Amino acid sequence: MEIPQQINDFSNAILEEITNKVKKNKVFSVGDLDELRFV
Length: 39
Fold this sequence. Notes:
Order of helices and strands: HH
Number of helices: 2
Helix content: 55-70%
Oligomer: single chain
Distance between the termini: 13 Å
Number of strands: 0
Shape: elongated
Structural class: mainly alpha
Protein backbone atom coordinates (compact mmCIF):
# COMPACT_ATOMS: atom_id res chain seq x y z
CA MET A 1 0.00 0.00 0.00
CA GLU A 2 1.39 3.34 -1.02
CA ILE A 3 1.49 6.05 1.61
CA PRO A 4 -0.01 9.39 0.49
CA GLN A 5 2.69 12.05 0.31
CA GLN A 6 0.84 14.33 2.73
CA ILE A 7 0.75 11.67 5.44
CA ASN A 8 4.35 10.75 4.73
CA ASP A 9 5.44 14.39 5.12
CA PHE A 10 3.43 14.68 8.33
CA SER A 11 5.01 11.54 9.77
CA ASN A 12 8.48 12.78 8.87
CA ALA A 13 7.76 16.12 10.52
CA ILE A 14 6.68 14.41 13.75
CA LEU A 15 9.70 12.12 13.72
CA GLU A 16 11.98 15.11 13.20
CA GLU A 17 10.32 16.98 16.06
CA ILE A 18 10.68 14.00 18.40
CA THR A 19 14.30 13.52 17.35
CA ASN A 20 14.99 17.14 18.23
CA LYS A 21 13.29 16.69 21.62
CA VAL A 22 15.38 13.61 22.34
CA LYS A 23 18.59 15.43 21.40
CA LYS A 24 17.69 18.29 23.75
CA ASN A 25 16.30 16.31 26.67
CA LYS A 26 17.89 12.90 26.21
CA VAL A 27 14.46 11.65 27.29
CA PHE A 28 11.85 9.85 25.23
CA SER A 29 8.41 9.99 26.79
CA VAL A 30 5.47 7.70 26.12
CA GLY A 31 3.47 10.78 25.11
CA ASP A 32 5.80 11.30 22.16
CA LEU A 33 5.14 7.75 21.01
CA ASP A 34 1.37 8.25 21.27
CA GLU A 35 1.61 10.98 18.64
CA LEU A 36 2.77 8.38 16.12
CA ARG A 37 -0.08 5.93 16.67
CA PHE A 38 -2.43 7.74 14.25
CA VAL A 39 -0.65 6.01 11.35
